[in-house]
Design brief:
five-stranded mixed β-sheet, about 40% helix, about 130 residues
Length: about 130
């Protein structure tokens, strides 16, 4: 049994930049399986959020990506739930960054920094010292 659980709100940037211990999807978890329907729903939800808070109105607003469950086994932060959303968001951010590089490398680097500090929120349930 785990020693204790904590629940906290984290930005996507904090989750993705956490390297101690590094993130890992356990081998027993399913492969990435989102299809066009789930990806379209994700994109449409982001688009609705953008339209709702267009322009400078977005400052200070948070987009709730969903819940994720991590288990810290002292070697890795194992992603037990939320890996499909995390993978899709990471692929999207990388694609935006890479597309921007064709136009302006400095802007692409700024986008990467800004997006990693973004207000995309996860509620992370973390099991510390789990056996």
């Amino acid at each position: 049994m785990p020693d204790f659980y904590t629940t906290e709100k984290r930005t996507l940037g904090v989750v993705l930049s956490n390297t101690t211990p590094p993130l890992r999807v356990p081998e027993y978890q399913r492969d990435f399986s989102w299809e066009e329907q789930q990806i379209s729903e994700f994109w449409n939800d982001l688009d609705r959020f953008d339209r709702q808070y267009s322009g400078s109105n977005i400052n200070g607003k948070e987009y709730f990506l969903g819940a994720a469950v991590f288990v810290n086994n002292q070697t890795f932060n194992l992603i037990l739930d939320g890996q499909q959303r995390l993978a899709t968001a990471t692929i999207l951010l990388a694609a935006l960054r890479d597309k921007m590089r064709a136009y302006n490398l400095d802007a692409a680097n700024q986008i990467q920094v800004i997006l990693l500090r973004s207000k995309i929120i996860l509620v992370a349930e973390i099991c510390q010292s789990c056996s």
